[in-house]
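The aim of this short unit is practical: by the end, you should be able to scan a pair of folded records and say something sensible about each. We start with the first protein, listed as its amino acid sequence and then its structure tokens.
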Amino acid sequence: MEYPENNLVQMNAQKPKINIWMILVVVVLFFLSSGATFAYFSYKESTDERTIYKSFEKTLAIKTVEVIGGVEQNIKLNKNVNRDKYDVFSSKLDTSIDKISFSYSSKFDYIMDLNDHKNKIINSKGESILNDDPSTLSKSEGRSFGKDKVYVSYLNVPDRNNKLYLDRIKGVWFTFGNDFNSEDSFNLLYDFDSSNLKNDVFDLFDDIKKYPDENIEGSSSYHYAILINKDKVKEKFEKYNMMIPPIAKDLDESIIQNTVKHFNSQLDLLKPIIVEIWIEKNSLYINKISTSIGFNVDDLEGGFNMFLTLKNYNQPVFIEEPKEAIDFRQLYSIMHGNPVYNVINETNYKNNLNDQKRISNIKQIQTALEFFYTGNNKYPIVQNLKLGIGDAICLDNKGFGSSCISPYMSLIPKEPTEDKFFIYTSKDGLSYTIDFNLEEGSGGFQAGPIQASESGLKQ
């Protein structure tokens, strides 16, 4: 069959038009489907973020809650490594810990009534153990009815402390108020401003992954994994630490600043931090949190495992105030085998407070010295130096001095009694000693000479 030439021309001219329309339709459908897919995942992501944010908002606004949790720490260091580099993972002030490897675990149970900001009611139970050694088991219970009414009872005391007569106070309730030398700790707990906490916590999130829902203690719960931004952690850690000096007036601000620097450097040794949370669907309260943190270095093995279970939100809390309790000022008398007196010798009481202050001051100085060692690979080399006076008013990168630039400690605390001194000595910079005396005994130590060193305190 023959077609007129002009018809062939027309047919050839129409074919491209059909192809163009088909391509346009395909392109439009592709973009529509891609847009729908993008919109779906964007909506899903924003929904997950809104769920988590709302959950944090509700959880931080609770009035009562029970928190059950635990922390496990397992560390193994290469024998040839400089272990001072990883001081943050071990306790240099506790010679019972093997520096090569150790495991530490603790459990706790808090019941809290937070209705009154200034008079939080808290019941806490805790226990800890080192290297699964029963002789190191420590168990205690605390009850707080505001910072002026705080009670503590020791249910089990490590056997290694029996020489300190701590077994005599097992199960005895002691009470103390804000005239105790730990007043700063209570102020931090009761006066802490948490108004921006939920925004600050949410700001730490780098990425969120949704896992299948799970059943947590009978409640259907959303399950999320959250990647934490370590740079943001550093920023928030500094922010909240710098809120401490106005409250904890006895704490040297330089110590806090160097703590922040040290924390930041150690944070870089950690592998990516992932926190898992479970959110109860109906109430949107957080009912479980867990995280496992490992180390990002070749010569260090182990890590931290932490878990929290939150329950009994906004339920009535009944915490009984101990009917019989002994004033904390009689603690040292009992530990030393003396009877409990109704009227305390005022001189002994003041001496005991001075002893508490001595130990607190020494521990701050030790912290500053560890920061110095980290930056200089040695301790300040000097002998029989009286700390807190003359050429030992502060500590910076050059050592002790009467004035310091960028200090590790801007004002070294003095011995609380006039004409007595903390005496510092380091002959080679590899170790040091600080000699001082206790008048009545405190912190598990009896009256008499005490020596502090890079290994801790000993008598």
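Turning to the second protein, read its sequence before its tokens, just as you did above.
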Amino acid sequence: MVGFRLVADGDWTAVVTSDFGCLMSGSCRGSPDGEGTCLRIPSPRSRRPLIAALRGLWTLPTNAIGHAVGLLATRSRPSRIGSAAARASLYLLPWGSRVSALGAVTLGDVIICAPEFLAGEGRRRVALAHELSHVRQHCWLGPFYLPLHALAQLASALLYLVRPKADTTPQHSYNLLEERFLCVPFSEIAASRSPLSERSARVLDAFGV
């Protein structure tokens, strides 16, 4: 029996309904690398006109919110970053901004980021790849992206009160949308190292960062 589901690259496609592998394993294809991390190499998104139009409508509400917040926060135009795997508008906050402590936030296909968060070439590439991973999440979550992230952060923060973790934040520590269902987990930012492993380099190159 054939049904429809939203697959890793944010496209609707016909699949066998018993095949949940790609959706359940996260938003990207691949397997953990040899160093115990869980980086996944993203596939290019479909460029078919109908798919692109449907994706644009599906993601429009959150994108509108993202651009509104980005313009208000930075008073500047964004730059475009990414690759065929995921593209986003990047708004950079002023240096020393009062909200710089937030690091980076992805609202749909919009990334709002403090430049301090991108200090260091290795960290910059991993951080941007992580945020672009959220852009891919948004492709299949659409208008549910922000509510689900809010719930996931709340649940993670509550679990953190019971069982704290070192070297992470309450809203990220047990958050599946930050650590499991995406190509580049949040924990990879803190663990970013130089030189990069071969797999890490392939993942970052696939994101165009």
